[in-house]
Amino acid sequence: MKIEHVELLHVAIPLVTPFRTSFGTMTSKDTFLLHVVTDAAEGWSEFAADPEPLYCSEFVAGAQIVLRDFLIPRVAALPRLTAAGVAPATAKIKGHQLAKATLETAVLDAELRAHGMSLATYLGAVHDRVPAGVSVGIKESVPALLDDVERYLGEGYRRIKLKIEPGWDVEPVRAVRERFGDALPLQVDANTAYSLADAEHLRRLDEFGLLLIEEPLDEDDLYAHARLQERIATPVCLDESIHCARDAAAAIAMGAARVVNVKPARVGGYLEARRIHDVSAAHGVPVWCGGMLETGIGRSPNLALAALPGFALPGDTSASSRYFAEDITEPFVLHDGYLPVPTGPGIGIEPLADALRRFTRARQTLWGE
Ligand code: OSB
Ligand code: MG
After folding, report:
1. Catalytic: 163?
2. N or C: which end of the chain has fewer CB within 10 A?
3. E strands in 198-307
4. Are residue 14 and residue 65 in the same domain, yes or no?
5. Which pLDDT belongs to residue 17?
6. Tally of structural domains, the chain
7. Residue 348: which residues within 8 A CB-CB, separation 6 or more?
8. Residue nearest to atom 9 of ligand 1 (CA)
9. For ligand 1, is residue 239 a contact (CB within 6 Å)?
10. Which atom of ligand 1 has the smallest separation from the CA of 318?
11. What's the pLDDT at 255?
12. Which ligand 1 atom minimizes the distance to the CA of 191?
């Protein structure tokens, strides 16, 4: 394949409800889609981060520059373009995993479409549907949280994740346990809001039988996560700390992670995400597929990944209606608490022309005429 044209489409889609985490509140999904046209087929992808670098160091405007000036020129110069060639061609550019993932995924979509193969088949999926969990933001009150959880359980979600921060942790977890019982698969996500000095406080969560506590401490501090795990019974799961398969292997080896949240965007794309799945499986460590409030363009390939055998826990792969009144693709709909694994070629979905027109704020040609 050869890249002929790359277009970036800035989209902004309102969320059905504000999503508050320890790092901020989101009211819309404001990002860009990448549309890569090659001589063989076309591909789509979605940049997973936000306009501000609050979850990770990357952000929308920065990623546009990195793609335009550093990543796309290197990939466009390849004599024979394949998705597997994107990471080697861009390896000298330090960091920028989310920007790299966007480019690799669009190229992979095009490559698989040229071969008529689905991403799920390519990655080695073993399921045709995956159980859906839901990530519930920090609320203004415990009753408001219980209402939200009740509604999600009524819709069929198979696992609840509560966002926590200092001042919103033991009390909401206790309230959800008391109301919905011990059998409810329940986990929490702190998005780096605590320090090792909070270990005794976090140990109070042990009595609630949580599946895991996600990213309690600093992103850069695997050592502190290992120390924390020695002091709490709840399994520590890493999200922000894991940027590549080597990170996952190191975290597992040092006891800093008993579970791994795999977000393809955070690790540079689906090829590295599969390596994390493989290295975790080799250690008997369960993984699950995280999310970044993606539109259908980002959600569809995540569902393909979540169908691999090591994805032993439900992911943050929720239905489109959990995020948007109207998605930019055909919506993903929950059936009995499951979402279907896409079967079409490539990522198995594309933007709906009418929705794309209405949600697009700006377009920019990054390569070609
Ligand atoms: O930490 O997992 C996270 C959303 C945006 C950024 C980071 C995270 C999240 C979520 C929601 O928890 C995941 C989703 O439903 O897509
Ligand atoms: Mg997380």
Report:
1. yes
2. C
3. 213-214, 236-238, 259-262, 287-289
4. yes
5. 96
6. 2
7. 118, 119, 120, 300, 301, 304, 342
8. 292
9. yes
10. 15
11. 98
12. 1
Residue nearest atom 6 of ligand 1, based on CA coordinates: 292
Say yes or no: CB of residue 98 within 6 Å of ligand 1: no
Count of H-run helices and E-run strands, the chain:
13, 13
Within this chain, do residues 88 and 163 fall inside the same structural domain, yes or no? no
Ligand 2 geometric centre to CA of 212 (Å) = 11
Which of 160, 293, 318 to mutate for ligand 1's pocket (most ligand atoms within 8 Å of CB)?
Answer: 293
CATH number at residue 70: 3.30.390.10
Q: Based on the fold, state whether residues 125 and 112 are members of the same structural domain.
A: no
Ligand 2 centroid to 214 CA: how many Å?
6
Ligand positioned closest to the Cα atom of 291: 1
Q: Mapping DSSP to helix (H, G, I), strand (E, B) and coil, where does residue 225 land?
A: helix
Distances (CA, A) of 193 to 24, 50, 62, 216, 232: 11, 19, 25, 6, 17
User: DSSP 3-state assignment of 238?
Assistant: strand
* Averaged pLDDT score across all residues of the chain: 98
**CA 260 to ligand 2 centroid distance, Å:** 10
> Does residue 32 share a domain with residue 54?
yes
Q: Are residues 243 and 288 in the same domain?
A: yes
What are 306's two structure tokens?
């979540």
Residue range of the domain that includes 110: 3-116+349-367
Question: Are residue 148 and residue 294 in the same domain, yes or no?
Answer: yes
Q: How do residues 49-63 score in pLDDT, each as one tens digit?
A: 999 999 999 999 999
135 lines ligand 1 (CB under 6 A): yes
Pocket flag, ligand 1, residue 31 (CB < 6 Å): no
Q: In the predicted model, is pLDDT for residue 20 greater than 90?
A: yes
**Which atom of ligand 1 lies at the shortest distance from residue 322's CA?**
15
Check which CATH number belongs to the domain holding 292 and give it: 3.20.20.120
Residues 167, 82: one domain?
A: no
- Note if 92 is an active site residue: no
365 pLDDT more than 90: yes
For 233-246, write each residue's pLDDT tens digit: 999 999 999 999 99
Local structure of 141: helix, strand or coil: coil
C-alpha 262 – ligand 2 centre gap (Å): 10
**pLDDT class of 369 with cuts at 50, 70, 90:** confident
Q: Are residues 138 and 268 in the same domain?
A: yes
Return the ligand 1 atom nearest residue 189 CA.
1
